[in-house]
Design a protein that fits this description.
globular; 45% strand; 5-stranded antiparallel β-sheet; 510 residues; 9% helix; mainly beta
């Protein structure tokens, strides 16, 4: 029973603290956003997503925030998959089915979300192990006095182009270190990012110029510390996540063009300020099949300067409070995890002046892992986002007030993963992957500059996992995607983008 409690604590903590730093997002959309974590000890190393605030309008900042959040949720989904796979791996298997170290990604995109025009992508590599046997209790390594170490190296590559003449690519290489002993977990994560963009300038749907940008940098560094009182009938976990500003928060000149849509690449931010996120969660098992968890965290976000070409315009992002409710139910051949995540945003300031406040956000999510046949495992996941209107500056009064319409469109994300274990020892696993994202139009009138007509994104791909040993795993994923942004007064027509996402990971535990 304690092992089940520990499992849901881990899953649920990730949801509660996903916004602290990298992962968003993306990873995130994070690194982020993000965004990472320990496969065994559940240590969560958030690497904050890095993004430039371009024109720095409240709408632009809001879109970047949403994009990062989406990535973070992608990361949560993949993390849930890994934990679920561990929880259901047969104890008599010499080589547990390989489980990919999912990405904070793109946050495969920062998907999901609704951002008004800068949307996000949520195609995330979340691949469950395919071994179908009867679930056995997850045995947290913390019960042993022996220390556990883990090193994970990941590689993400994104390449896309659209029918307007824009194209871009991004390479992200995160590395994550985790340490766990007894009730204590520590995680550390950073990444290298190379982002390139070439595109056009449009006016009333007509091309009037070109633009390009390139940024090569380290990301911010995410550090996490956790202590879990697992011996209690209601286990309690204390977390402290830090975002260390080792990345590149300030961009100048054409570098700002290297910031791309979160639905196309993982990183929409290359650095931000010092963030600190303390939190606490508690879980309890009801019988042998049901577990419920509650958690809350508060993210203190530090000031940073995104635009080196403008003076006295430092951004002081509003703090955030995140509350999470999580539920888990398991049967012999299936497992269900679902929950709600509520986020309250504080007031963002620019140059010492009130700038905007994002509307409260509610996310409902569910993941079902099911083994229909021996060696087969299917994972179905869904998330639905809704957000209230933002508070923005009233240009007549100069005060912050609620916007006249809601610039945040609702968003729905669905994902599918069918894994099949191969070989006598089931060390090989192949995956068929598919994702779908729908972002609804916001409630502004079409002639308003804040109007966003919504978007649809579909991804399909293949994955492969290989268990090198009982403590080391290798994973590869490749996905093709198509993204359609509905016509706006600026584009005058629907805009289609196609792209390829590649993801690889190598994990060693000691």
């Amino acid at each position: 029973m304690p092992s089940k409690l520990y499992l849901i604590l881990c899953v649920f903590i990730l949801a509660t603290f996903s916004k602290s730093a990298f992962a968003q997002d993306v990873a995130e959309k994070s690194i982020s956003n993000s965004e990472a974590m320990s496969t065994t000890g559940c240590a969560y190393a958030n690497v904050s997503r890095n993004a430039e605030l371009l024109k720095q309008t409240p709408q632009t900042l809001q879109q970047i925030e949403q994009s990062n959040l989406i990535s973070a949720f992608d990361f949560i989904l993949s993390t849930q998959t890994k934990l679920l796979s561990q929880a259901t791996t047969p104890s008599n298997s010499d080589f547990p089915t390989a489980v990919p170290q999912t990405s904070p990604q793109t946050t495969e995109n920062k998907q999901l979300e609704a951002e008004a025009s800068d949307a996000t992508d949520v195609s995330k590599p979340a691949s469950p192990s395919s071994e179908p046997a009867k679930p056995t209790p997850f045995k947290p390594p913390a019960t042993s006095p022996k220390a556990n170490y883990s090193v994970t190296s990941e590689y993400y590559y994104y390449n896309w182009s659209d029918d307007l003449g824009n194209s871009g690519s991004q390479f992200v290489a995160p590395i994550t270190f985790t340490y766990q002993q007894g009730n204590f977990d520590v995680g550390l994560r950073t990444a290298y990012i190379n982002s390139n963009f070439e595109g056009v300038l449009l006016l009333d749907g007509m091309k009037i110029g070109t633009r390009k940008g390139q940024v090569s940098t380290l990301s911010d560094t995410s550090a996490s510390f956790a202590y879990t009182l697992k011996e209690l009938s209601w286990p309690i976990r204390f977390n402290l996540d830090l975002n260390l500003p080792t990345g590149r928060a300030t961009l100048v000149g054409n570098e700002k063009n290297a910031i791309m849509d979160g639905a196309l690449v993982q990183q929409t931010r290359f650095g931000e300020g010092f963030n600190i996120a303390p939190g606490i969660s508690i879980s309890h098992a009801f019988g042998n099949k049901d577990v419920v968890g509650l958690g809350v965290s508060h993210i203190f976000r530090g000031q940073f300067d995104p635009n080196g070409d403008v003076s006295n315009d430092e951004i002081d992002p509003g703090d955030e409070t995140v509350a999470t409710l999580q539920y888990q139910h398991n049967e012999n051949n299936w497992l269900l995890i679902g929950g709600l995540i509520y986020t309250n945003y504080g007031l963002t300031q620019r140059g010492g002046q009130d700038y905007y406040r994002s509307g409260d956000r509610l996310d409902a999510n569910a993941t079902l892992v099911y083994s229909p046949f021996e060696r087969h495992r299917v994972q179905l996941s869904g998330r639905y986002f809704t957000q209230s209107p933002n508070d923005v500056v009233n240009f007549l009064s100069g005060n912050i007030s609620k916007e006249t319409a809601n610039s945040n469109g609702n968003a729905l994300f669905l994902s599918f993963d069918w894994g099949v274990a191969l070989g006598k020892q089931q060390r090989h696993t192949v995956h068929l992957l598919a994702d779908y994202l729908n972002v609804e139009a916001n409630s502004y009138d079409r002639i308003n500059d804040l109007f966003n007509a919504g978007r649809d994104k579909f991804s399909i791909g293949l994955g492969y996992d290989y268990a090198l040993s009982s403590k080391s795993r290798f994973s590869l994923q490749a996905k093709y995607f198509n993204l359609t942004d509905n016509a706006t007064p600026v584009t005058q027509r629907d805009v289609n983008a196609d792209g390829l996402n590649l993801y690889g990971t190598l994990n060693f535990s000691f």
